[in-house]
Amino acid sequence: MPEKQRGRYAALAIAAVVIVVGIPLWWKTTETYRAWLPFSEISELDSLQLQLSVDIEVVFSRGTLTPEQQKKFPLSHVNEKEHQVDAKTGLRYKYETRYRTATIMEEDALNQPTAAEADLSLHMLSESSCGSVVVYVIPESSTLLPEVRFRAFVYFYILKSLLKLIMLIPAVYFQDVKVYVGQRRTALLRSPPFKTSWNLKEVLSNLDVEVEQVVSTMSFGHQDIVAALSNRVRMTKVTKESMADSMRAIKSSPGYEITFSLLNPDPKSHSLHWDIEGAVQSYIQPLLNKLAPIANFSVDSQILYYAVLGVNPRFDNSVSAYTLSADSLSHVINPVEARLGSNAASSNPVLNFLLYVPDAHHSPLFIRDHSKREVPSNAFHSPRWGGIMVYNVNEMYGPEAERPVDININMAKVMGVFLAQLRLMLGVQHTHPPTGFVLQSPGSAGLADWELDRLLWSRSVENIATASTTITSLAQLLDQIGNIVINDNIAQQVSSAVTSLQSAVAELEAGNLAFALQYSREAILASERAFFDPSLLHLLYFPDDQKFAIYIPLFLPMCVPIVLSLLKIVSEAKKRRADKQAKSD
Amino acid sequence: HTHLNYKLGLTLQNRTSEALTPAAAARDEFQEELVIRPLHSGDIYASFQFRTLWDTDFLQEGQKVSHYRLFPKSLGQVLSKFSVRELHISFTQGFWRTMQWGQPFIPSPPGAELWVWFHDTVSDVDGNWKELTNVLSGIFCASLNFIDLTNTVQPSASFKPLGLGNATDHRFLRYATLPREIVCTENLTPWKKLLPCGSKAGLAVLLKSEKLFHSSFHSQAVHIRPVCQDEQCTSKAWELRQTLNVVFDLYTAGQGKKEWSLFKMFSRTLTEACPLATSSKVYVDITDNPELSPATPLLSQAVVLGDRRTYSVFDLTRAETFGQLRSLNLLLRWKGDGEMLRPLLHAERYVAGFGLQTGEIHTVIYNNHPYRAFPVLLMDSVPWYLQLYIHTLTVTSKSRDNKPSYIHYQPAKDRHRPHLLEMLIQLPPHSMTEVTVQFERALLKWTEYTPDPNHGFYVGSSVVSALVPSMVAMNTNFTQDQPLFSSFVPVKEESSYFVRVYTEPLLVNLPTPDFSMPYNVICLTCTVVAVGYGSFYNLLTRTFQVDEPSLPLAKRLANLIRRIRGVPLLT
Cis peptide leading into B294, omega within 30 of 0? Predict the structure, then answer.
């Protein structure tokens, strides 16, 4: 029956058109635009293997080695250590140590009367690259070190529970000074007693322990690096202290706003003057100049009148002064913060430093720590937020003074505290030097070169960790929700973040610390920009079941006849075959 | 091993000297002022002005201003970041009734208004403007972020810089209004925070939102401009003026008695000046001789908006102002039967027409001066969805065609920019001038409608700016307080004054669709497609066979009976 045959063909043709043209057309016109993303490279980044390479130079000065031993110089040695932090993160430290003898000029420099001068003249001779460490081994009998111990102070901070009260405590070590760490990237190491019978290998292996201590002081320790990975790794193995360090320091960001605010709750009694411009210029700016490779800083200041702390200080009869206990400090910040105002011109994180001059009726005011002792600095800080210092002025005028009293604030005293707090916030970790170490105070720059290096190491690692987590979670999100539109600019940001990340890892491996930081900053910027792009948040995501409910009036009447006629064709074909079989039987 | 009580700041110890430089002479000053004026309608007009003057330059190349004392840091940062030369922002709740209340000291349109002159070094003005509006919306807690290119215009003549510098290139000017913006406490709080004394001392203690927003009119503004530092104008200073104008309807609320006190208005009294202010004064308008207590010997005369007014002055920086009670509560009682000075310039606007397709905007400007004609600048910014027919623009005065001497018209681009119409019109004396233009309402895309589209769409106030001849100059026969020799030729600077009048904003209905439309459209289209497809499919796949015609029903029934009976069947 040709007529029936024709109907069959027509049904098949329509089914074919619907399947070949209709469905792809519908699919194409309703799909969301998704630019290509480097998913495979991102999944590689998911398991991060970081290698940190440090160049170490060990220089033997005259009188430390026998001529016999010196003949084998120069010599180099590579030492690698591997740590598996968790299933997806591994660390490898590569210490490339080169041994050589001192040049004549270096010998001259080492003959300076004091270690500080020797440090300076060594620095003049050659500038070592960022991230490297030079250790000069000086004879046991050298007079450089014992004198040093009376000049250099080690300062460290005592931390008290949650609200870390700062005390700067200078300490003079009376142990035998073994190592002197200068303001730059050099250290002087007193050679341990070598037996003349030892061959060079034994001498070097004897030195190894000390050199390692020097390196972990001056570049990075394992704990610091693991703490910097806190964005990727669940913390279990980190010591409480390096954890506290990394939690106190403000998160890595391309820029920071530093705001100094003078709070004057009582302008009727006190007319306060602070030379903040000069103080910033002489105390804060040198440190910030030094930190310029890490981030851009901008400093501003304001005076807030009638700004009060959130808690009422308690009057203590025994000292006839008002006191703030450590427990109440956590309530101080919130009410003040409403007055501080956010920075209108940028979205960088803000570090606030408040100088609070108590009003005439509530002074003097002292902060007490948990053991009820007065905090000598009369200051405290709040992690990742900033610091507050209380500045009592009641002793500066008598009861008959004419109100308002003009008061000049001693900026040296104030800035000393703020500078210490700023160092903490920026993550300049205080080091716990092993016994026998003397660290030269950073001097006018506020930061020694090796301290900067330590910061660069941990910041690079932190940036890489943060950027890689951001990128992988973004990729995961985009993978899971198929409806999100991926614009070309997001794809571009993601791929530039991935390339920057790869370069940062590579530079870290090659030991180029400055470039590694640079690339890691770019990576973090690009990844954040991609992650927080508003185009990912368009509210155009309908659940699939609702979408199909809307299409049902179209799909149902179209598909039912096609399916029915296909079924009919199949059943007819079956029947015909059965008939044929029956016939042939 | 450690010395606990060691001195602080150890690392710095060797570099600091105990001798401190004396504090730099304060280069900024702060003034506060309150003017109270009883209105003829029985309402009270209170106008606060806070002025901070700082002789610094935000636009200096290379050197960033970053240390603030009295000037608010947030605004200073905005000025230097966006290279703003002048910034005027106002938030107003309610409409200023010029005919009942006279001219305000600082006029403002209902809703939010923002106009900014950028420095002429700015290359991307639109980009700066966009970012600036976003930042300002954060500072003032307002929806200024809804300002975009579709409601921003660049008036060519109406908004000239008020401060130093005669910028004339209007490419650096941006003007936008949000007539729908509702002003409330959340805008007042950040505004008060910009004051050096906050709301803790001085005149600002009166600014309690529960009273301020219980009023007929409330307007708060911030004006920043560069001004001369001294008379020779050798260097520039920046002036920040924060103004707050409020009209209290105490007449109806107070049982028809025309009397008020500070306490009644603000539920506070004044106890002190802001200690940071160099001057802190309260002026009370006593031109119409009301009863004022406490009386003050200090009087001040000023010509304000073309009218000579007398004020009692209370200086808050002097202790005797507060008297024995150490608090100042002004009390005023007045009859209010004096003639009110009729405002010489007045404008109103309405939309006419019927249906949802076309309409007509009428702007009516009144010149109430008995014998002087003067020109006014009319500026109209109309959103793109009202498509103006500019050929229908007519200007008539005294039922005669009045040809504008200057017309600047920038047509709208759909979804990109609004219409801008500026005209210089000469107003004949004692006349009413009517400007009409027809428009057609556009159909919006369904995502472009506001959440409550049936409320209608707002069109911002039109702005009438003019130099109005002064009433003082007009009054030629006053000899009471001026010698004859001084009053023959009117003094030049008093002969006219600048006035800006804002009309009402318009509320226009646009054709509003049913918003379940997309779903309906999908369903309907699908059904139509499915029906068409179904018949088409049937037509193509159905096989046609010649069918034997069946017997009619009667024959079949007959056959049934015949079968029972065993009779041969019919065919």
Answer: yes
pLDDT tens, residue by residue, A224-250: 777 777 777 766 655 666 666 666 777
> Which is it for strands A386-390 and A379-382: parallel, antiparallel or unpaired?
antiparallel
Asked if the Cβ–Cβ distance from A7 to B540 is below 8 Å, we say yes
Greatest CA separation for chain B: 142
Across the interface, whether the CB atoms of A565 and B541 are under 8 A apart is answered yes
State how far the alpha carbon of B336 is from the alpha carbons of A396, B291, B297, B339, B365, in Å: 57, 11, 23, 8, 28
pLDDT digits (tens, 9 = 90+) for A433-467: 666 666 666 666 667 777 788 888 888 888 888 88
Q: Determine which of B17, B20, B535 to mutate to test the interface with A (most A C-beta atoms within 10 Å).
A: B20
β-pair type (A296-305, A270-273): unpaired
pLDDT in tens, B498-509: 889 999 999 999
CA atoms of B279 and B313, how far apart (whole Å): 12
Interface test mutation site (partner B, options A25, A160, A169, A371, max chain B beta carbons within 10 A): A169
B11 with A565: Cβ contact below 8 A:
no
What are the backbone dihedrals phi and psi of residue B176, each rounded to the nearest 5 degrees, phi first? Answer: -150, 145
CA distance A281 to A107: 38
Q: Which residues of B touch A153 (CB under 8 A)?
A: 10
Complex ipTM tops 0.90: no
DSSP letter for each residue of A363-398: -SEEEE-TTSPBPTT-EEEETTTEEEEE---GGGS-
Q: Which of A1, A306, A413 sits opposite B197 (nearest CB)?
A: A306
A509: phi then psi, degrees, rounded to nearest 5: -65, -35
Mutate to test the interface with A, among B8, B141, B199 (most CBs of A within 10 A): B8
Residue A1 pLDDT grade (very low, low, confident, very high; cuts 50, 70, 90): low
- Cβ–Cβ below 8 Å for A155 and B10: yes
| Range scoring the smallest mean pLDDT among A3-12, A234-243, B322-331 | A234-243
Q: Residue B9 — very low, low, confident or very high, per pLDDT cuts 50/70/90?
A: very low
Task: List the strands of the sheet with A314-316, edge to edge.
Answer: A314-316, A321-325, A365-368
Interface of B with A in 72-91 (CB under 8 A): 72-75, 77-78, 80-81
C-alpha B152: how far from its chain's center?
13
C-beta atoms of B3 and A169 within 8 A: yes
